[in-house]
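Hey, weird one. I pasted the Subtilisin-like protease SBT1.9 sequence into the form twice and got a warning about non-standard characters only the second time. First submission, copied straight from the form history:
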Amino acid sequence: MGSMRTYSSSALLSCLIAILQLNFMLAQLETHIIHMDLSAMPKAFSSHHSWYAAIVSNSIGRGEQVSDTSTSSTSSSHLYSYSHAANGFSARLSPDELKAIQNSPGFVSSFRDVHVTIDTTHTPEFLHLNSIPEGAWAKSNYGKGMIIGVVDTGIWPESDSFKDDGMPLIPSRWKGKCVKGTSFDSSMCNRKLIGARYFNKGILSNTLNLTISMNSARDIEGHGTHTSSIAAGNYVRNASYFGYGEGTARGMAPLAHVAIYKAIWDNDAFASDVLAAIDQAIEDGVDVISLSLGLGRFTLDEDPIAIASFAAMEKGVFFATSAGNKGAAYGSLDKGIPWLLAVGASSMDRELNGIATLDNGDQVIGLSMYPGSSSLEQLPLVFRNQCYLHELHNVRDKIVICKDIDTVLDVQIDRVGNASAAGGIFITNRTYLELYLQLPSYPAIFVTPKDGELMLNYVNSSSNPRATLEFKKTRIGTKPAPLVAAYSSRGPSHSCASVLKPDVMAPGTLILASWTQAIPVVLIKSRPLFSKFNIISGTSMACPHAAGLAALLKSVHPNWSPAAIRSAMMTTADNIDNTNNPIKDSGSRYNVATPLAMGAGQINPNKALDPGLVYDANAEDYVKLLCAMRFTKKQIQIITRSSIWNCSNPSGDLNYPSFIAYFNANHSSPNARVVQEFQRTVTNVGNARSTYKATITPIDGFQVTVMPETLAFDEKYQKLSYKLSIEGPRMMKQVVAHGSLAWNEIGGKYVVRSPIVTTRLSLVD
């Protein structure tokens, strides 16, 4: 018996040691994206898929410190092989296995997998999309035949926005499919929703013990359904958010097809899954990719989105992405990728309102999205200063006025609700107010300090102040609009500071679009409310507006390059609001917006379809830029997936429809004048015989000149070049200054405008 106990103890100890060793090895495992030189693939392999699989298999047990091959084998995982978005694969590897792969023939580089973050009834009218014969919708046949690929949280296929009433047949070139999964099968696709796939090997490998409840393309978060319907949703009458924003919902390209690629799970995602989704979208044959996601700050050769979008560009696929929601600080924009479109967010001329009617007859219109069905009638109105806890006694069944001074507004909202007040009126001038509108679970409105003063004067002068609150009001035509959204990320970009970003802006604030039925849109006193439509804000909402416009443009101009389409959007964008004044920036105290906030301006679909001139660029032009940025041959190979490029002719002067010049030299004579020059080439896509004259909007303290001052075209598609020079001090006094160059067609309709920025901001961190 004693020997048996000794044996059992010894066996138990061995088992524990083995478990500890296994846990140690599992803790060392990380997911990596491996870039390979496809030209180095041995002839023995029939495909790159089998080559990559063999590399992973051969790496198992080859590390110097790996002693148990079988254990290593169970811990290794080959996740994806990439065919288009990158040359390479992703795998979950131990440090020794990674080292073995790095020593394999054809290895180029490796990067650890990284987290990815998630960055309309009225927007078509606000952007002047309508059914007139000369309009963008009519000319493009509403995007008929175009395919928009959306990489996001999936889709709610039962949404009315994805019904195929009136939709054309699926293009014969389409190679995608609807992949079966949890609560999703191929019957849920149709002529509108023509593809649905999902990708989660990366998040599963990076997140131990993760259980995915909806293992399919079905959207249980809402974000993907929202963005997809903005880009290409079908017509839905009587759409609203509990009565707010009521009207006919439809996407920017209502007759375009949608393909969804789910790569975000429970608001979490990894680059390996996103890269696989983009890779598949290119393979399937999409025309446009809409990506409302952010990766953080990376150099171009380490940025999976930069690498994937370069591949898309080479295939002629237009790539739009959100600029990010990091706010009004200069340099907050991470997406400086020069071969895609970075889209900032703006407001519309629509307000969602609640109305406070005071007993003296005065009315105050505030912002509100309270979805409840009842109004508050003739209730006592009390002012409780900043609504600290000690100020909220005896407020039950009363309407409480709070002043947002140095408090946290969301905390203030919670306090009023917890005090059992009947309703709340919050006096605030916050620029991010749109992000607070859905927070109150009780009747509430938000008013300006000016309107708040009127209300406080009434409260202080009345012996029995009372008010009525009404909701579900919508105002159209509010001014000024658009405004740059305060949350929208600003340039310059750290990854490519020589290219002005963002490129354009599009509606992103309080956008009504389709939503999942898997989760409530709001809670009213702990009671969940569901809606087929939701109203949310972000550059995530702006991006699909631009992607939908790209589909319209590509429908009319199928042979245009992604650069030409981007140019058309930029040079026709509006920099004037609906008061005929320069667009203002809500994140900069409503000062005039700079191109670092709004890019070239607000997209204008009708003008973009017929821009007159375009600034074109191809892969070679971008490589010349990379060379000028001193990327190595290896780094360029990672980005381009090719070893054919060389840096014999570098050029930092990319043929881009905007200009940014840095006057920040630390010099003993900071006021000494220097000149920066830019070379550009435009292609005539307007009238065959036409002449354009340059007009400069000046920049204070700088001399901007153009040579030649006129461009005379003899035929369509003719190319002509010009040089723009900016003379200014080595170290400028202002942080940012801006102007523009416009080529005006003499005796014609075209105005081809490009923003110009001068700045003393640093190029790098």
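That's the output from the first submission. The warning seems to come from a hidden character in my clipboard, not from the data itself. The chain has four domains: 28-112, 117-348+487-608, 350-476, 654-759.
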